[in-house]
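Blinded run. Sample ID left blank on purpose so nobody reads anything into the name before looking at the predicted structure. Input follows.
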Amino acid sequence: MTTTTMTSTKHKGARHKNTRGGTASKRPVPTRSKSTYQAGLSVETDPFRHRQMMIAEAAYYKAQERGFDPGHEVADWLGAEHDLQSRQGLE
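Blinded prediction complete.
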């Protein structure tokens, strides 16, 4: 009979150590249940996801206008959110 001990339990995929000199095997990582997006909601049927996609696209164009200089991603996103809210009259 082979005895196994854990070498680490703090993170997924911790390796098991075979105390009889065998090779280490990787513990299987548990799978997650389906999210709402995997369950069939799309950009067209989920208003939150649709809004996020609109903001992401607007933020991309803001970044493109400034030449994709790094370090301004948050400002691009927040500016895109503000622009979207202004167009929709949500301010």
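Unblinding after everyone has recorded impressions. The chain has a mean pLDDT of 76.
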